[in-house]
Amino acid sequence: MAANINTILILGATSGIAKARPSWQQAVVSNARCPEIGAQKGLENLPNQRRECPGHRTQATETRPELPKPGQRLRRISKMELGVFSDPSSTSTNAMVSEIATNLIVPIAIARAIMSHLLSLKKPTAFITVTSVLAFIPLSLYPMYNSTKAGPHTFNVVLRTQLAGTNINVIELAPPYVNTGLDGRFREMIIEIQDGPGKAHPPMPPKDYKDSTTAAFEKAGQKEIAV
Fold this sequence. Notes:
This protein is α/β, with parallel strands linked by helices. The chain has five helices and nine strands. The strands form three sheets. The protein has a four-stranded parallel sheet. Strands 7-8-9 form a three-stranded parallel sheet. The protein has a two-stranded antiparallel ribbon with strand order 4-5. Helix 2 runs parallel beside helix 3. The protein is globular, with a radius of gyration of 18 Å. It starts with 6 loop residues before the first strand and ends with a strand.
């Protein structure tokens, strides 16, 4: 599959898994955090247009890029919050709305905005969404995150059916617990809940995840990649 990739469009590429992109990709990124983008080698910045999601105090990105070559891939960042529903103070309505918008509404809005462009290429391309292993095996501390990752999984299944027979391959990445900043605000607490560093489940290094995922991409016909 790597030999067919010319350009990758990464939405939300300044941190986390998106930074651990395979080295054989020419990357074009769309993200508002331009200073961080400029500090990364091999990334070309594509300014995005931000529009308010009706009914939500958050923003979704709708971008129609002018990309130079076929073989585009799309990825996006995520948001994770803790939530214990027996303790209302552990979360807030605004936090829940923001997490839903970031993890669920945005990837669906991106699909709507970009699909006609990908279809117009008339050459093999792919739409890749990052979900999580928690879409399949939820953890109780992340009720909203689990749900907002299960939603894109279902959407991918439907989108793949709608696009059957076209030039677009719909692929879902379902990463395990990777050592990114996603849980940085409460990692120490999670480690403590697991009885300390000696017993806590360790995160996978980003390079190990990148290598495993790159190897999985080399296998034809991949629909869901979980390592």
